[in-house]
Amino acid sequence: MRIWIVIAFGALPLLGFAQDSNLGNWFIYFGNKKIGANWNWHHEVQYRNYNAIGDLEQLLLRTGLGRNLTPGNNNLLLGYGFILSQNYLPNSSDKTEVAEHRLYQQFITLQSIGRVKLQHRYRFEQRFIEDDFKLRFRYFLSLNVPLTQKDMLDRTLYASAYNEIFLNTRETVFDRNRLYAGLGYKLHSNLRFEVGYMNQFLNGRNRDQINLIVFASF
Questions:
Q1: Are residues 201 and 16 in contact, defined by beta-carbon separation less than 8 angstroms?
Q2: pLDDT exceeds 60 at position 96
Q3: Which pTM value belongs to this model?
Q4: Which of 40, 74, 94, 207 has the fewest Cβ atoms within 10 angstroms?
Q5: If DSSP codes are grouped into helix, strand and coil, which group holds residue 7?
Q6: Cα angle, residue 151 at apex, residues 26 and 214 outer, rounded to 5°
Q7: Do residues 12 and 195 make contact, with C-beta atoms less than 8 angstroms apart?
Q8: Rounded to an integer, what distance in angstroms lies between the CA atom of residue 82 and that of residue 215?
Q9: pLDDT tens digit sequence for 196-218
């Protein structure tokens, strides 16, 4: 419960944006539960708005079971996601709901280059969208750089950035690209908070989002 209170308070400055703003907002929680020495349970909730707040675009629930192939650096995970999207109809203020069930497999590898912490994530998705079935590849590259200490220790302010590209296996190959930059605070080894700006490039258009993120492990 304490995590969600922090998220809500962090969103208060955004209430000043007009409802018709083009700036969207994502509330994100990532959780990780260690199971023994080599296994982990991943779970996440993402609540995405078209505007600064109050206009639901998408609710995403994702979970998965992972195994460390080497201590701390390489993780293989099998997962499932449920995604409820509310899409605007063309030239209308009306919405339609679309439900998606998603299976995915991913591999994460971690690297350190001096003070820079790198993460590579390779993900393959099988998407069941209403009566349609799609496949998609994703590649995610992120970095964290501690600002107030030499390493990502407790009570450290850090800079964060990532880029993620999405590729379909049919129709239009390029799906989207997400570019993000933010600031984070690592309270202790099991909890950190982050706020940042993301620009999402789609075919012929782009969208801006403010992201408020909590990372928790236990």
A1: no
A2: yes
A3: 0.88
A4: 94
A5: helix
A6: 20
A7: no
A8: 20
A9: 999 999 988 888 999 999 999 98
